Amino acid sequence: MKTLDKLMTRSGSQCELCASKENLSVYDVPPTVSNLSDREILACEKCLNQIEKREELDANHWQCLSTAMWNENIPVQVVSWRMLNRFRNESWAADLLDMIYLDDETLDWAKQTGDHEGDGSIALHKDCNGNILVAGDTVTLIKDLDVKGSTLNAKIGTAVRNIRLVQDNTEQIEGKIDGQQIVILTKFVKKQS
Question: Contact, 7 vs 27, CB < 8 A?
């Protein structure tokens, strides 16, 4: 039986976290644990985007963890614990963290991604209007830019296609203008829809 079919049967064809029935896919809970064969869950697109830090956290959406954390399947418990830790500064999540129980082996697995450390905030690349930028987007310059170390002057309205995100700095993207690869500050670009 395929993993997706098995998870659909196990979950009743719904997200194992929020119970949504739309845009479901398999999520392989990291990191791989050699002694645990079933480490996948069925999750909706909204849950996946927030788990994988591609979207800002929505506390209202994650109220579902009050039910999901009691799921009998260990991978669902692990993801529930990790997501609760991202919200641990909110009273509802702190209360749920006090109630959730994971055995030592499961807790060790849950801690391996480090989601229990830090403040849970997500650093996303955003344009001048606050729209989230992703690799491959096309953006437009909102002001004339002189390119350091070059005679190139990038004019307002210039489209930069297929951008790349600078991993260590959410205020910078990379793109090509007139065939030259440059770094651009996100505050000077607007995402094209």
Answer: no
Distance CA 121, CA 126 (A): 15
- Nearest CA to 49 out of 89, 83, 12, 96 is that of 83
Residue type, 88: R
Question: What does the alpha-carbon distance between residue 97 and residue 69 come to, in Å, rounded to a whole number?
Answer: 9
The string over 62-99, giving b where at least 16 C-beta atoms fall within 10 Å of a residue's C-beta and e elsewhere, is bebbbebbebebbbbbbbbbbbbbbbeeeeebeebbee
Whole-angstrom Cα distance, residue 46 to residue 59?
12
Kindly state the tokens that stand for 168. Answer: 């260590």
Spatial distance between the Cα atoms of 113 and 120, rounded to a whole number of angstroms: 12
Average pLDDT, 10 consecutive residues per value, the chain (193 residues): 89 96 94 70 95 88 96 96 92 95 93 75 82 90 87 89 89 90 93 88
- Residue length, the chain? 193
Helical segments of 52-188, H only = 65-68, 74-86, 91-99, 104-111
How big is the CA angle at 36 (ends 54 and 30), to the nearest 5 degrees? 15
